[in-house]
Specification:
With 261 residues, the chain is an alpha+beta fold. The chain is built from 5 helices and 14 strands. It is globular.
Length: 261
């Protein structure tokens, strides 16, 4: 059997030139969320280079195939000198999306990469995923030298407001257990969407200007000019954030530097 597609080693032959001996340092107080797009015929080398451009301490990815994430982590180390631990939050075993043997398909869902070890991982599938199984994962890791609970989630697709409201309730109950938390992900809802109310009641967006009542001020995070991707902060102060258009996904890269002192 031949391995084809974006997960193949041939993916290294991409439009982006490969670095030679490039070594970067992780920004210890930076977190990032990115829906990588799936199915998309993108090279894992290019995805790794996109992440390395910002070198965050923690990266949350959605629509992620476990085999792709492993390759991305390997490329981050071999091409950029960035060493990450990885934890998976797969909710599906999907051959069509993620390849693998038909009897052993690749895991699909969320993943977290962290420069520090991660502990106390949980992976929860929402009772109702909507048109596709969805869930959240959480770990404890270090950001800015502090031990923090970090969440990564992907809510139901657009036009499924009632499903997302139920998912927000499930996630909010877990967030509320922690005085300080970072909640990353693709929520598939704009800031003033009613289904996000349980999250807004517990946390704020990394953009101080972005609030449920001030729609239009929030920077879009998708090619269709909607804000769906968030860095929600509970008990943590943001310093600065950036939304970076991506050549490799229909979602932009959102990263934030945090004050954890």
């Amino acid at each position: 059997m031949a391995l084809v597609g974006s997960g193949a080693l041939g993916g290294a032959l991409s439009g982006r030139s490969e670095p030679t001996g490039a070594v970067k340092k992780v920004v210890p107080n930076r977190v990032m969320t990115w829906n990588m797009c799936n199915p998309c015929e993108e090279s894992n080398v290019d995805r790794a280079a996109e992440i390395a451009e910002y070198a965050p301490q923690v990266i949350a990815v959605q629509e992620a195939c476990a085999p792709d994430v492993k390759k991305i982590r390997d490329y981050l180390e071999s091409l950029f000198g960035l060493v990450y631990h990885v934890e998976y939050g797969s909710v599906l075993q999907n051959w069509g999306r993620c390849g693998g043997a038909p009897w052993n398909p690749g895991g699909y869902g969320q993943a977290l990469l962290s420069a520090a070890p991660m502990t106390d991982r949980v992976n929860v599938e929402y009772p109702d995923g909507g048109s596709e199984d969805r869930g959240y994962m959480a770990v404890t890791t270090k950001v800015g030298g502090q031990s923090i609970r970090v969440f990564n989630t992907h809510f139901a697709e657009r036009r499924q407001e009632e499903v997302r409201a139920e998912q927000a309730g499930v996630l909010a109950k877990e967030i509320a257990r922690h005085d300080r938390a970072i909640v990353l992900g693709d929520f598939n809802a704009v800031p003033d969407a009613p289904e996000l109310s349980p999250i807004w009641a517990l946390a704020t967006d990394t953009d101080p200007q972005c609030r449920p009542a001030s729609v239009g001020v929030c920077k879009p995070t998708t090619e269709w000019q909607s804000k769906f991707d968030y860095v929600f902060l509970r008990g943590i102060t943001p310093l600065r954030h950036r939304v970076e258009p991506s050549s490799y996904s229909d979602h932009y890269v959102l990263h934030s530097d945090l004050n954890l002192s």
